[in-house]
Please model this.
Amino acid sequence: MGNLHNWAGNIAFSTEVLSRPASIPELQEIVSRSRQVRALGSGHSFNRIADTAGALISVADLPRDITIDTASATAEVPAGASYAQVSQALEARGWALPNLASLPHISVAGACCTGTHGSGGQLACLASHAVGVEFVRADGGLVRVDRSDPAFPGSVLTLGALGIMTRLRLAVVPSFTIKQTVWVDLPLASAAEHFDAIMAAAYSVSMFRDWTRPGLMNALWLKSLPDDPAADAGAWGARPATTALHPVPGQDPAPATPQLGSVGPWHLRLPHFSPEFAPSVGNEQQSEYFVPREHGPAALLALAGLDLARSLYVCEVRTVAADELWLSPCRERPTAAFHFTWINDDEAVAAGIAAVETALGHLDVRPHWAKVFRIPPERLRTHYPDLPGFRALAERHDPDRKFGNPFLARYVYASGGPT
Ligand SMILES: Cc1cc2nc3c(=O)[nH]c(=O)nc-3n(C[C@H](O)[C@H](O)[C@H](O)COP(=O)(O)OP(=O)(O)OC[C@H]3O[C@@H](n4cnc5c(N)ncnc54)[C@H](O)[C@@H]3O)c2cc1C
Model:
């Protein structure tokens, strides 16, 4: 077992080799001469999705220029750049991305490859911002694909299966500001009854619960546009927070983005965590489950009675807009997302996952590709009718499965398509 670990430390990669090419020709040369390779972004995934027995490749040392085309409102960004770096460069020139994940530390390619998302009923996952992608395929060739290609919906959220991404072109919007307000002690029954209204109360909304307080959601985070009417969560039984909070109850709030009605640029309010601090807890594992949005209240209630307090730091409930991406957990359905930050104990995580998957099993549930889950491949595959098309695309760019690994073998390549 190698010394290379993911961010959380719960995964030791099966290789000691991490190559960091400084140019695209050098990357092409490494890929073409290798038998097994896989890209590693910032290593924030919690399962073996990024693993390989061959060499890991980081594209973080490739040229870092970010170019903006104002006419088409798009920006071309390095695949290995973090969202913090990209956001800062966009903001400096008056541009923005429509949404971000809870942390800006992750790489653009890594986030897009796994369907990473933020919250917002009108806001789809981060891969849906992409309008073009450049990658090095198995034979070392440099490929560029854009939205005019019928295979584009399978070319960004790829789980790393098509090749090593070098650059992405993202749709951008004019810079905007966000006001962040946190409410506490939202009654669970009220959260379920008014689910749609609460999740629509701001541009981006998150509810948090840690199961230590029966019948209560710990917190409701509202990220509002300047022109949004001020939401009164008191009407749903919540109270305004009087101090800044960390998303995980009891943690020092310093790493969290400013709250208490503080207005600031989009990239310093949409994530929960500020770029200059380590996000979340660190010694943790994560899972996330996606159900059709209309099942959000039922999911909330189905989870309510579980005994999770001892295995969980916090659960976050978000909404995500539907998209058309072949492997997206939000594919063709507006989504309610239930995220779990577990304590870093394999047994506790396994028990928690088993309980959650059982509780949500009747709600057409899909797992986050980059987090810990147990849903069997044959069930998971029924959610992805475009898997055969995706396999054909992967076959075209990587006929010998140079970018393959056991994770892809299990969930993507294993025989048997969707029924
Ligand atoms: C504290 C914390 C908070 C999180 N919050 C959220 C959240 O709010 N929303 C959410 O949806 N997820 C969240 N996640 C999960 C995270 O967004 C995903 O794990 C994401 O994939 C991380 O990006 P990365 O760059 O670390 O990818 P990695 O883990 O390094 O890689 C993920 C996958 O992408 C592939 N990949 C990476 N770079 C490339 C490339 N250049 N070319 C081709 N393939 C590539 C890898 O091979 C691998 O398959 C969180 C994770 C952590 C640790």
